[in-house]
Amino acid sequence: MTPTTPATRSLVLEREFPHSPEKVWRALTEGPLLEQWLMSNDFLPQVGHRFTFRSNPNPNWNGVSDCEVLEVVPPLRLSYRVEASGEEATTGMRTVVTWALSPTEKGVRLRLEQSGFLDKDEANYVGAGFGWPRFLGKLERLLGDLR
Amino acid sequence: MGYKSILSSASSEVFRTLADPTRRALLERLIREGELTVQTLTLESGVSQPAVSKHLGVLKKAKLVVERRNGRQTHYRAQSEGLAPLLEWLEFYRSFWTERLDVLERVLEDMNP
């Protein structure tokens, strides 16, 4: 896992919480808790489970994301595919959200990685998706050098 | 997650264009090394020159590179304006998740141990 610096904008966010990994895991995986900080959902921590995240619709979006659980390793790692639903899905954009927890002296460090946004015909989208944050991070450093 | 608001047709084109690893590699090289000819780009690319030209054409259409002809040589360089949709995308989701994590912090405080 590559360390992130605040100076590098990328789709990796890390935050430390003064709580046990098990408690943070519950907030990530129990539907009613998840709803309190993210979105209403019918999530279950089971690989292959299909669910939706629902937020308020707006004129540009029906507010629904179709999702599928890809990985569940309590209380360390969770990932799911998130895809815009309905008409928006025709843009073919997919994304994978991965949560990684590592215990620290004071509690737990939570790492969020969002990758993807690949065309539908990209067969191995998960594997390909992992190239994205690296590419974007590198890109921004390079652009920073150009400025 | 407000996909449509951030995914204008311009940005979907950029994402589609860069979904291809060969094109990502070509663009990365142009950003890193400045202006390069098709021949130079073909070396190390692992694909044929016609394939490289085709990929460059797609990158050009997405406004990610510009070309300059000099005699029989065609030179390409990266166009950073074309990358704006990617940077917007990063910014959008960065603030979305930062906000959500702030709320998560409060939810954790209110939960039983």
What features would you describe in this structure?
The complex is a heterodimer of chains A (147) and B (113). With 147 residues, chain A is α+β, with helices and mostly antiparallel strands. Chain A has one domain (12-146): START domain (Alpha-D-Glucose-1,6-Bisphosphate, Chain A, domain 4). Chain A contains four helices and seven strands; from the N terminus they run βααββββββαα. Chain A has helices at residues 21-29, 31-37, 125-129, 131-146; strands at residues 12-17, 40-41, 50-54, 64-73, 77-84, 94-103, 108-116. Chain A has a seven-stranded antiparallel beta sheet with strand order 1-7-6-5-4-3-2, sandwiched between helices. In chain A, strand 6 (94-103) and strand 7 form a beta hairpin. The longest helix of chain A is centred in the last third of the chain and has 16 residues, at 131-146. Chain A is elongated, with a radius of gyration of 16 Å. The two termini of chain A are 28 Å apart. The relative contact order of chain A is 0.18. Residues 1-10 and 117-133 of chain A have low confidence and may be disordered. Chain B has 113 residues and is α+β, with helices and mostly antiparallel strands. Chain B has a single domain, classed as Orthogonal Bundle (Arc Repressor Mutant, subunit A), CATH 1.10.10. A three-stranded antiparallel beta sheet of chain B has the order 1-3-2. The interface between A and B is large, with 45 and 37 residues.
Q: Count the DSSP helices of chain B.
A: 6
The CATH homologous superfamily of chain B: Winged helix-like DNA-binding domain superfamily/Winged helix DNA-binding domain
Q: Give the tally of structural domains of chain B.
A: 1
What is the name of the CATH topology of chain B? Arc Repressor Mutant, subunit A
* Main sheet strand line-up of chain A: 1-7-6-5-4-3-2
Question: Major sheet of chain A, described briefly?
Answer: 7 strands, antiparallel
Provide the CATH topology of chain A.
Alpha-D-Glucose-1,6-Bisphosphate, Chain A, domain 4
Q: How many distinct beta strands of chain B?
A: 3
Total of DSSP H or I helical runs spanning 4+ residues of chain A: 4
Characterize the main sheet of chain B. 3 strands, antiparallel
Which class of chain A in CATH terms?
Alpha Beta
Mean model confidence by pLDDT of chain A = 74
List the secondary-structure elements of chain B in sequence, H or E.
HHHEHHEEH
